[in-house]
User: Fold Pilus assembly protein PilM from Candidatus Campylobacter infans.
Amino acid sequence: MKNNFLASFKGPSTVSGKSSSSKKGLEITTVDVFKSKAYAFKDNVVKPKDYSSISKKDPMIVTYVKNRELHYTKLDASGSSSGETLEGFLLDAAYRNLALDNAQQYLMSYGPRKDKENFYDVFLISAETVETNLQPLLFNTEYIDYVVPEPLLYKGLYEQGVLDSNSVDCFIYIGDDEAYVVVYNQGNFSFVRSLGRYTLNYLAAQYPAITGQKIEKADFFAKLKQDGVSGEMVNVVDELLYFVSDVFANLSDLSTANISKIFIGTDIGTINGLADLASKRIGIECRDFSFNLNFEGGEQDINFLNVLMFLYARGCDDERSPLNLSPYLRPPAFMKRDGGKFVALMGVALVAGLIMPGVELVQAGLNTMERDEQKLKVESLQQEVNGLNSKKENTQKEFNAIKDKLANLRADLELKENIIKDSHSKKVEYKMKNSTLYDIAKYLNDQGVNTENISIDSDNIITVVLNSSNDIKITKLIKFIENSDRYSVVAKEISVKEGIYQSAIKIGVK
Assistant:
């Protein structure tokens, strides 16, 4: 079945002023290493690609790292000194700002913000994490052209003219094991927020607790995909959407009134009714991930992130951009390497030698020039290394002192927090159970229905066995409770034995 976002792709655009003509006719292989799936895109044709067939002969290979594995910060680079590189300054500042361990090696992706001069968006990820994630792919190829931070993938929608860049757009993505909100302002990344535990796996785990029905995770996803958000599924999804609503209500980065569009998507594709329910809960119109795209051969179910990887790579001109996290880049073309340049110079010198005497003089001059240039480079790099080493030692001392102080504060805070949580939990649960039992007793008394047994199955579910000489009284009681704002009822059939009507009902606290 074709995904909604694969509808009428007309080819690349230059809306943002950046042409992707250099990628025309080039096959781009997108790889989701977390799901072991790959696709080959060429212009507007897409086809599945066998994982084992990926090799360094593929002209371009693209993958991504998940948002949950990234450390993000926004940095002011106006305080950098003339004696250090921008990359060195940002890396040093990010370690301090994010309180990262200096003994741990991190890869950095960074780019200037468009809304504030001298400010940069910086993403860091453990080099060990990248190596572990990409290891299955590296069995087949030694080169990976792009490793993109997940929040930056949406840039391709604007680079290729799929979305108008003159707006503020929000993307809510709910994956199996991560969920986040990312905002783009005027076609540029603005910020990203994690939605914590509210993933598809979390919803699957909550379904039995809310409905009382056990279900396997795969069956839950199939049910959610097939039936959409309706009936009992509304209660399952509501907690997630209320949390998203709270995130929007507390955004300090921008006013929600400025948001033009909200798109919502998941790892299992479009879920019917999810965007409509999200619109009601958030208070802003939400849409499915349904964009103006179409690929020949796109009938297979393609994960949306693979499409984003293709669009992103198609708009990139330089794999050595500081935004790229890949440590596995291809070597430059031979004539662009130092060795290639040297061979070219040697060729010129040889031709000159055949035409006129003095080839030895030309060679000596070239050697001297190269030695002097390399000497200057070495001296400059050594000064930079010395400065960074000195700064690293001072930073390490400061970090160790802060780390010790933070550990003591954290231990004290955890002790106090556990005491408060324990006390609060006991008070709240006690009050809730007493209040619920009081309400049930009142309903029973008002309707003239007797009870044989009351049991508390969980904090939110109470089972009551009813009996009465009149089945109408039991029916009226069930409808009365269902019409309340606080409770929901699941009732078994009413049975009769020796003139006494009996029914077991489960009362859920909303």
Q: What stands out?
A: The chain has three domains: 27-332, 343-420, 440-509. The two ends are 37 Å apart (CA to CA). DSSP finds eleven helices and 18 strands in the chain.
